[in-house]
Amino acid sequence: MKRILFSLLLVAATVTNLRAQDTGTQQQIDKLFGMIQDVQAAQELQAKKTAALEQEIAELRDKVNTPQVNNSASADDLKSLAQKVQEIDQKRQADRELILDQIKQLGRVAASAPVHSKPVAAAPADAGDTAPAAPQKGYEYVVQAGDTIGLIAKAYREKGVHVSSTQILKANPGLDANKLYVGKKVFIPDANAK
Asked: How far is Cα 86 from Cα 135, in angstroms, rounded to an integer?
């Protein structure tokens, strides 16, 4: 009986030992299963990242293969533009100085030009014209090349005759200040003449 008991005890110890091994094995299996699940989740995540990267690469290929419209300026472009602006500004300044010199020369010519006039008792009246609104005494002036109403009035003022461009135009009905012809006679009113 001792043998049977010992056998039973041995079988029980073996079964207990096997159960302990089964529990240990089950824990290892569960641990391995958990690790497999983690690896699968990481693989899915990697697959998503790979798909996103493939999409970005495809978009970049499209951008590289499409012709680019260059709307930005490089530093050299900006330097070139700045130089051109400076050149234009220098030309503008030179043109301004030339214009000012020409105006000064015209002023000297107008100031030194003799005033071609003779005293007149009354302004000439055309049959269809209305009577002038200015005084009836003054001077007759013959238009010269380069004359304007303003220059004529200035020349007479320098000679002591107090007259303005407006007074000259009023004294000469029908006179167009923009269409003065060389040789045309213009009446210059003199408020001081009696």
From this structure: 55
